[in-house]
Amino acid sequence: MTALTLSTSSAAALRADAVVVGVAKGAKGPVVAAGAEAVDKAFGGKLAAVLETLGATGAEGEVTKLPAASGLKAPVVLAVGLGDVPAKDDGYDAETLRRAAGVASRALSGSKKGAFALPIEDVAAAAAVAEGALLGAYTYDKSNGNGGSAKNAKNAKDTDKKNNGPLAEVALVGGKPRDKAYKAAAERATALVEEINRARDLINTPSNLLNPADFAAEAVAAAKEHGLKTEVLDEKALKKGGYGGILGVGQGSEAPPRLVRIAYTHPKAEKTLALVGKGITYDSGGISLKPAGHNETMKCDMSGAAAVFATVVAAARLGLRVNLTGWLALAENMPSGSATRPGDVLSMYGGKTVEVLNTDAEGRLVLADAITRAGEEKPDAILDVATLTGAMVLALGNRTFGIMTNDEAFRTSLHEIAEEAGEQSWPMPLPTHLRKGIDSPVADLANMGERMGGGLVAGIFLKEFVADGITWGHLDIAGPAFNESGPFGYTPKGGTGAAVRTLVRLAERAADGDLG
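Now predict its structure.
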């Protein structure tokens, strides 16, 4: 993990491999952003002109490297584009700063230290730069194929040498190391990003190295480290408890399913949240087999469970005054002679029956069991997170997740929280007319309904398993969970850790007594 330090030194005086400055897109050419005054002075006030000569425009995400002028301790200046110059007195928004810092960190991969002299006008700006720089510095540890998780951490140093490794240290110029608010922001950013990276590592781990039992072991190990309580239901306990959804999905695999309960409690908590994560460690589609071209990245189908796991640990590390229980519904969906067939009927946890019309609509089955179980503990709210439907990707694209709830105020609150956290989301409806489509002649419900609006149908299905009187929400993160294109901003190729920032911010609001 990249180290984060706060520095009161000027950008000119700080020893580093490179000093990072911001440059914006002005009406008459690039404009050097606040924070880079000392660097601009070293260039005789002509840094913007030099950058323009080199082709820089200030466009968002643009990177320009140039040798440092005399008077700077760093040998290189890295100018990162911030986009359009903001309106007078508005300043740069947090997400712009996050993305710029992430771009700079990626550009400095393999370096020992980067001095970030971006516009840091207050604590919020410092937090945004810190988050973006740390998120952008992420690299996946390929040693033994497993992203540096507990059982393979010993190989990390050798792998870092082969891959150049991430930027080793981020120094925030303009940070105030003796100011309690700045220190708290830096500590929060470090804990948050370390847990997002935990989720990214799990998502990037090949499925042959992360089956349901392996994932459960990771959760148990983290729980011991951070003082959390865990309970792991193996296939025998699941059968005894009547968890027909999880068992039905997992019965075709030689790697049996698990349901993990991981809980953080605070003695002064007034609110209790239950988070439920879909954890399909590999999704072949089962008997309703996915075609070639649609199954190569299906190791990422446990991204929801990874996000929930990371959030519970983050809450513990931050000492949030909230009770937070994570439910990880873990299974591998494989075709075999013992696999669930289309047309089979499963008896779910809690007694409902479901006709399985498509075994590739398996995520809702494992979630249904876990949502029902979570509801027995009477939390103030349940929020499930899942890479659930391709329909949501078609509707919202690859960078935006959908929000569905049984409570309009909660849906609005989740949307606001996601925006505040820097994650793109969009509220989606649960139209009542689509409910009839999941009626079944042989069971209480079918796991498929109308094809059009499939993402909404999945949400309607899940709603059927929410106990009366409990506020519930569903995040379909199928689009942003796994980035198959090139890296951008602070987002790497591969697992992104989508929804963790939103979930942590929700937990923080709950700690303040606000759930929307």
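Residues 146-162 have pLDDT under 50 and may be disordered.
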